[in-house]
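Worked Example 4.2. Consider the chain below.
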Amino acid sequence: MPKDKLGKNEAKRAAAAGLRELDQEMTEEERQREMHKTVKEHIHKGEDELFEKKLTKEEKKAVMAAKKAERDAKKAAQKALQDKIAARRGGGGDAADEGGGEEGGECGERQSNTSAAGDGEDDGAEAGSSSGAVLQAPPKRGRAGVHSTKKRDHDYLERHDGILVAGPDLPFFQRSGPNAALRKTMQMDIRVNDIRLCAGKQELLFGAVLALNHGRNYGLVGRNGVGKTTLLRSIAEGIIALPSFLNVVHVEQEIEGDELSALETVVRADEEREWLLQVEQALVEGDDALEATLKITLNEVYNRLEEIDSDDAESRAAQLLAGLGFDNDMQGKPTREYSGGWRMRVALAQALYLKPDLLLLDEPTNHLDVHALTWLEVFLSSWERTVLVVSHDRGFLNRTTTATMFVHGKRLRYYGGNYDTFLRVRAEHRVHMSSMAKQNERRQQHLQQFISRFAHGHKKMAKQAQSRMRVLQRLQDEPCEVDFDDPYLRLDFPCAGQLPPPCITVNDVSFGYTRDRILYEHCDFGVDCDSRVAIVGPNGAGKSTFLKLLTAEIEPIDGHVGRHSKLVTAKFTQHHIDSMDLEKSAVNHMRGLTAEGVSVEEARKYLGRFGLSGDLALNPIKFLSGGQKSRLAFAELAWRSPHILLLDEPTNHLDLETIEALAMALNHFPGGVVFVSHDERLIEMVADELWVVNRGDGGKPGTVSVWHSSFEAYKEALEEEYRSKMVSNGVVKGQR
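Applying the procedure from the previous section yields the following structure tokens:
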């Protein structure tokens, strides 16, 4: 009968008969050797219990002795590791063996920039619930300009031949492996109740609710000083606790410059990829001890590298940097050669490259030109994760956000739609609530009249009066809250008077810091007291340099810049803070503008025009916010009473209301205005003429030309160009 036709019992009996025949043919020596070989194989597989009943007493003793020796060896290894950790803790953690020393210190700095994946929270835990999610510990500020939170179950870091290993988990956010699979079952929406934030003695938020729906872009708006930046920092540092399975990245500070290129800096921001590549190299070289320590095989490493698109890492980083204004040569330069604004762009590229679940952006437009700003708008509009952005650029908020979070009255108020929708809905809501408040006031007056008339009259009427007293008390305890605006800030720039044209003439001007590298050539322009000129173009094209040509800070290589003999100019620079003594008060800064000095009354008068009154004028400048420092610089410009104002990125650090006030002040200014800005609202409200500064390609000089259309048309042309490039390069698809 064929073997496959046998029943189970017949097959077992046939197999047993075959084994007996084989056993009879073997010698005793062969039989013992085969038995020992089989036992040894199954001991390592944990199946020796299947054969113990066939062993002799001596063989059982040998097996037990082997197991005991294995346990003793493990205990000895664990004790040696504990002694080593204790020695490192006792010595301050400065041991240099096994990849420690300087390399370990640098790695520890990089770790503070990344987040941790969830490590087994309950699947039913609700996002944002303090009872269902593990709280995150505040991290140290990272060297890479982006930092996020990471739950750490261990208090030490250990290395194996230079490769980081740790206690229960690794100190960076893991986007691949078991943690990534676990995250798919988690609730990604965020809700945190009863938030209270303080800055020193000032209470910023009380009883506020943070509610973020996954996949939406939120604009965080509010007046300067209400706590927008503090809120972002508190989220990033874990003061406001979010679930640890959420990857949160905060872009606030620029990176520290070093010898790494911009491209390498962005790629190395992904610490998981760097770690996997190290593990891969070690396992390929046959490091069995590391495989046993990490409990990860080479195939698993390959799968995880594929999950995070490791092969496309450099191309993705290069495309992000290119969108932010870095050409091929710039991407290869060390970051120490870049200014703070360009390093800030590298930090932004790192954050976009990491693709976090929650991206926190604090004034990302401050260091971006129109080209990079347009690219970022297109990129964020297709972002499929959650974004919370603080920005003063109204156009940027309108094009990138789908919801608005308004900080007002120590609360967080939510509105659907972009910034313009928020303004319209808030105005309608304010009108409705004002009407309700008036109705409540009239009703309270009517109730008070009834109570005062019948409270001590007939018993039946007195009972009704008591009932109305309860209604009145309820109305007084629950007043109708009206969302009043804060007092509007009014700015004022006085002028020295009118000058007959031309005030400034630019005749066939060419400029370059060296003759072999001309920045632009053949420029012909004129500026008068009625000019309203906005200068736009990519960073590095020479916009700020062109302002210096107008003020005679630099001289052209060819051509001529003429100025009226009585012309007075006042210039606002991007780095106005560098010229201030931060230990002085705002009043003393104003008094020190001339050798003769300015009186206290006159100094306070100018400061009051720009919202710096009371203690703000007397406190040291270092305690003022960025927007308040800008107001101090504006007060200095007003004191000079110029014929022409020259402004280089004046909207940096200003809130939206102050930008509106600045635009109205410039429109009322009797003199001329020339300003460099990327702020769409300011340009649309002030500029009558648009000058576009373009970089030259292939070593050729650039140009300065007049754009014969609106700023909106200029932005649309740039947006269409970038969108077509991003779609063709797969950047939009790759970031999802």
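The chain has four domains: 3-55, 108-417, 421-477, 504-568+641-729. The chain has 26 helices and 20 strands. Compare this with Example 4.1 before moving on.
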